[in-house]
Amino acid sequence: LAAVFGVFTYAIEKGYPLALAQTMAMNTLVVLEIFHLFFIRNIHGTSLTWAAAKGTRVVWTVVLVITAAQFAVTYLSPLRVVLGTAPVPLFEGLLIVCIGAVFFALIEIEKAGKSIKAPRKEIGTPAATHIARRKRRKRASTPATKKSPLRAFTSNASRRVSRSADWSLRT
Questions:
Q1: CA-closest candidate to residue 27, choices 84, 85, 78
Q2: CA torsion, ordered 37, 62, 97, 104, to nearest 10 deg
């Protein structure tokens, strides 16, 4: 959010028209969201691998559609008139993309720092198994405070069936 307001303030202080400042802020927001999409796709590992870059076709399709729509909103005259946007100069456009790249680098560094401090517990590791056992014990030791009527009915019905089966076996 600071980057969006920062770009808007930068454009106003540079003397650009309000429409251009708003367009630059909007483009910054979209670029940040695209970089955040790539960050969030690999939340537990680095996003800077070839496998992560390949991703899925849907993600790349969405990024291409969003980018095309953003260029249309920014540079096509009919849409500019309707939406009140202004074309962004090349240098400012590159500045916006660089801000997105810096944002991506910062959140990747933060992710790396978190993974060093607290390694992820994989399913099947001794630590994860211990945690799962502790949760099961805790659930088993806490008394059920209220049973649902359906559960009470089905448990009573199953007891009746088992009693009648026991009775028939005895005779």
A1: 85
A2: 10
Q: Is the pLDDT of residue 169 over 60?
A: no
Residues with Cβ within 8 Å of 156's Cβ and at least 6 positions away in sequence, in order, are: none
CA angle 31, 17, 85 (to 5 degrees): 50
pLDDT confidence of residue 31: 95
Name the nearest CA neighbour of 55 among 71, 33, 70, 40: 40
160 pLDDT band (50/70/90 cuts)?
low
3-class SS of residue 119? coil
Integer Cα distance of 141 and 96 in angstroms:
56
CA distance to 47, 66, 68, per residue, from 89 (Å): 30, 19, 17
Classify residue 120 by its DSSP letter: -
